[in-house]
Design goal:
Layout: E1 2-6, H1 10-18, E2 24-26, H2 29-41, H3 48-59, E3 65-68, H4 74-92, E4 95-100, H5 113-123, E5 128-133, H6 136-144, E6 149-152, H7 154-165, E7 181-182, E8 185-186, H8 195-208, E9 214-217, H9 223-231, E10 236-239, H10 241-248, H11 251-262, H12 266-271
Parallel strand pairs: 1-2, 1-10, 2-3, 3-4, 4-5, 5-6, 6-9, 9-10
Antiparallel strand pairs: 7-8
Helix pairs in contact: 1-3, 3-4, 4-5, 6-8, 7-8
Bound molecules: SN-glycerol-3-phosphate (G3P).
Amino acid sequence: MKIFVDSAEIDEINKAKEYGMCDGVTTNPSLIKKAVDKLKSGGKKVDMANYISDICKVAGRDSPVSLEVVSLKAEDMVKEGVMLYGKFNGLMGNVVIKVPVSTSRQEGEEHYEGLKAIKDLSRRKIPVNATLVMTPEQALLAAKAGAAYVSPFAGRIDDYLRTKLGESFGKGDYFPAEGKHKDGQLVDDKGIASGVELVKRTMEILERYGMKTEVIAASLRNARQVREVALAGAHIATIPFDVLEEMIKHPKTFEGIVKFSEDVVPEYQKIFGD
Ligand code: G3P
């Protein structure tokens, strides 16, 4: 499984690269806002074009960087995608255009603008990451439209189910892959009992039909969820930096390293020189 870093913060992308934990980067308008707010609060001015160029450069040639469009109409999203690709792909050849699978905000609005944009951009050989995917069916449609990647949002489905369960929860709280029951009934979203199940079923469908589209498990909130999407066979997990850090820590590793350090006898230490 590849690991992408779900961040627009250059420091984080840089560190993940150093750790060898960055096969790609995913951004979205909220992550860009977070990065920009941080820079501004540190008194820095942001030149967005330079900033995005830096993200692409830090990620490097073989690490796809997803950059999201902001319009809601297919025609406008295509223009934005073509512009982003034209402006930044030349640097490292790693730009992927992120397009919401649907841009409708409620019933009654046009639901197919996202798919139309995905199809158009893909036909132009611009790789697309279909985002805000909440069902395997949406993923299937995006894959049919030619998306190179689909991003099922595991954490947000868990949020949705917890709200149905009437639970209060923190963003990083674990939600079981098998789902939860209320009044003896499994609480689900049209048969999907958890974000991990969303990823699993999406993988199953795309693999069954031999589709080339890769599944990026997204909206991941904790280390155990990463383990579960890995077990579900996700091609890629895009992971926030704090979750990457959570993945490496264990109290018994801390304890073990203390003991090993204490137990180094001088004879053994000498092997390494003074
Ligand atoms: O990659 C998608 C991700 O950034 C959304 O995560 O935690 O805001 O649902 P989250």
